[in-house]
Protein: DUF1349 domain-containing protein
Amino acid sequence: MTVRLPELPFPLEPYGPEAAWTYDDGVLSVRAGARQDRFVPPAGESLEPASDAPRLLGVAPAGDFQLIARATVGFEAPFDAGVLYVHVGERQWAKLCLELSPRRPTICTVVTRGFSDDANSWEVEGDSVWLRITRTGKAFAFHASLDGERWVFVRVFALGTAQESGAARVGFLAQSPTGGGCSVAFDSVEFRGVAPQDLRDGS
Structure:
C-alpha cells in the first residue's frame, strides 16, 4: 500500500505491524496495537520481531530538509506516543516523541545505533505538540514547538554513514509499549527543502 500526502513530495509506505492508516482533510491517523514499540534495550537484549510499531515512511529527497507535523496523542497508558521517525538501517534509526513518560506528556527522544538510548527533554501541557525532524548536511536534528512557530532545540546527532543518512526514510510512528493501544493523529504536516540556518535560535 502506498500513501500519498499532498503536503509531501514523496510517497509513504507502511512498515512494521499492520495498522489502518487513514488520511482525511489534512489529518493522518493511526492506532498502535497493544504492546507495540520500537526499541532495542540498551542492557543488551536483542530486538524481537514483536518489538515493533506501525510506521509510515518514505525516502526524502536528497539534501537538507525539514519534516514537520503536529502530533495529537490519545494517551491511555505509560509510554504511549506519537512519533516522527527517521530510519537509515535495521539498527540505525531515531524517534522524536510526544510521550506519556510515564505520567506526564513529555518530549522524548530515542537514537538507536545497535542499541537504543532514551532521553526525556521536557514536559508539556495537553495532548498535542509540533514536532520537527531536520536533515542538515550529514546530521539530523530534533526540535519541538508549542505553537508551530518558535522551535525548541532537542538534540543533533549523526546516524549511519553519509550515504545512508542521505537515503534516509522519514515519517510517522505510533506506539503503546505497556498499554492496550494508542490512537495518534498528525496534522499541520509540512515539508521544507532547507534546514534552519541556526538550530538553536528558535527558527
Observations:
- Residues 84 and 172 are 5 Å apart (CA to CA).
